Amino acid sequence: MANAVVELRGCTRDYGGVRAVDALDLAILEGEFLSLLGPSGCGKTTTLNLVAGFVEPTAGRVFIDGEDVTGLPAHRRGLGVVFQSYALFPHLSVFENVAFGLRERRAPAAEIARRVGEALELVRLDREGRQRPSQLSGGMQQRVALARALVYRPRVLLLDEPLAALDKKLREEMRDELRAIQCSVGITTVFVTHDQAEALGLSDRIAVMSRGRIERLGAPREIYERPSSRFVADFIGASTVLRGRAVATDRVALASGLEVQVAAGAALRIGAELELAIRPERVQLAAGPGMGAIEARVEGLVYQGALTEVSARLGDGQRLRVFVTEPSPVPLAQGQTVHLVLPADAFMVLT
Amino acid sequence: MLKAAVVVLLAFMTLPTVVVIAVSFNPTAILSFPPAGFSLRWYENALTYPQFQRAAVNSLWVTLGSVALALPIGTAAALALERGRLRLPTLWATLLLSPLVVPGVAAGLGFLILAASLGMIRSRAVLIVAHVALVLPFVVRSVWVSVRNLDVTLERAAASLGATPWRAFRRVTLPLLRPGFFAAILFAVVVSVNEFVVSLFISNRVTEILPVAMYSYVVNYTDPTIAAMSTLFITATFVVVWLADRFVGLGRVFLQHR
């Protein structure tokens, strides 16, 4: 069991009448890549700012390596931060930007030259040392920001939506590079993002946040396959939520009377009203009726290259989202009747 | 049609200067235009006149002193106005910019009475203080524009890298305020060197600055020495502005808005 490098205990942060973070408890473990994931306004950036020391909690305490740093200002915490806008110093060269933290620590010139060189090599910018940030592309600036935050080997690396300003291709490249660097350096990392695909791909653990609280904390696969709440099911991946009533410990009757089988271990309370979620990629297209397939009518088709997003209307009026991997086993057209198989173990019971 | 109007306007504005420069070369002791010949005797006269020499030195000290004081005060004010979360920011801004709208005579009289009540009539210190007050609006305005354009995240970045607030200010904020400082110094110097009305009230023959000395001269003598002095003055201002453009770029100074 890894030890906690950073701990937030009961942290609350108010801005005027708004509670940005609400009695938050979080332990960030040594060497892990933790993502704070959530929609705008969920408190993820405020949480990061609490760790960094840019804001003080209205209540609660912050610990780094077991030491209470709640009152400690940001410049004494020894952390590394990469900002969404990169915040590179425009009047300094790339070399001087990266050297900034070392100069503040009074490192000797030879050491600065060596370590800045290493940091720039790590982010593959060893030949751009003399340039000014304004002369570099967005992706390069982001790498300078990363080198600058890592060069003095901080205790924790904090990243505030660093990939948000990049285009899709670049974002994916940087995502992989970021993970590779984090793995090779082994630094404890906290990553703030609203992009769930990013979080899923990068993290050891994800904290899904909403309205200042952590809704779910766990490994990506666990959260994706067992979201446990409607908010998480909606926010991570796509899903359709169906309403129904349990008629057996493993059967649910939907509004129209249509009954679906869920996994045996669900242990439903008979008579309970509940919500089921199913991921669109788990719904299967049957060649024809039978075999427990449910009839539905195609209402919408969105071609996405590798798959087609289908919006289908069930007999009871509820809508179901289906991802059909291209090429489709069955021809798809607007208004067409299709037969869908909803595997029992694909259902996620939401509380 | 529009072109003609612009030409006429420009001619109207520059004509007095042209006349003064032309008159300064007149060989005889009469302010006649056009000049009857060419002579540099009035320039020699102007440059050797002891009162002008003393006044020039006074101007130098007063301008340097007032700009040196106004710059830190104005910077502090600009930062306070932009970041200080003041309760009545408009009030403070109006107070700081008020010297621009107070008539010179009123301000001059005010400073004179103030100096008298402090027993400091006609001292250089009062002169410098008055210049600081007159120059401050320009300094505050120029630096304020730069402060507005500062990215606040940069200071956070500096803090995250281990810089104390003071070091962040020195290493990040101040260098980025440089365009504002250049503009402030340029405006302040031009305003202070040319300041006449208030300086007239609160200086005597020992402490007076150049514009006041020139006025005193004209009151007593009407030879082209004054025209020569004026031409030197105009030329010096021109050179200063040209140097500012050459080394800093007036575009950078005046076009700070993003």
Polypeptide structure, described:
The complex is a heterodimer of chains A (351) and B (258). In chain A, β7 (156-160), α5 (168-185) and β8 (188-193) form a beta-alpha-beta unit. With 351 residues, chain A is α+β, with helices and mostly antiparallel strands. Chain A folds into two domains: 4-227, P-loop containing nucleotide triphosphate hydrolases (Rossmann fold); 238-350, Nucleic acid-binding proteins (OB fold (Dihydrolipoamide Acetyltransferase, E2P)), CATH 2.40.50.140. In chain A, 24% of the residues lie in helices and 35% in strands. Chain A has a six-stranded mixed β-sheet with strand order 6-7-8-3-9-10, sandwiched between helices. Chain A is elongated. The model of chain A has no long low-confidence stretch (mean pLDDT 90). Chain B is mainly α and 258 residues long. The mean pLDDT of chain B is 89. Chain B has a domain at 50-224: MetI-like (MetI-like fold, Orthogonal Bundle), CATH 1.10.3720.10. In chain B, α1 (2-23) crosses α12 (225-247) and α3 runs antiparallel to α9. Helices cover 76% and strands 0% of the residues of chain B. The interface between A and B is medium-sized, with 26 and 19 residues.
Question: Topology of this protein?
Answer:
The complex is a heterodimer of chains A (351) and B (258).
Chain A: E1 4-15, E2 18-29, E3 33-37, H1 44-52, E4 59-64, E5 67-68, E6 80-82, H2 94-104, H3 109-122, H4 138-150, E7 156-160, H5 168-185, E8 188-193, H6 196-202, E9 205-210, E10 213-218, H7 220-225, H8 230-235, E11 240-248, E12 251-254, E13 259-261, E14 273-278, E15 284-286, E16 294-303, E17 307-314, E18 319-325, E19 337-341, E20 347-350
Parallel strand pairs in A: 3-8, 3-9, 6-7, 7-8
Antiparallel strand pairs in A: 1-2, 1-4, 4-5, 9-10, 11-12, 11-14, 12-13, 14-20, 15-19, 16-17, 16-19, 17-18
Helix pairs in contact in A: 2-3, 2-4, 3-4
Chain B: H1 2-23, H2 41-48, H3 50-83, H4 89-97, H5 104-117, H6 124-148, H7 152-160, H8 165-176, H9 178-194, H10 197-202, H11 210-220, H12 225-247, H13 250-254
Helix pairs in contact in B: 1-12, 2-12, 3-6, 3-9, 3-11, 6-9, 7-8
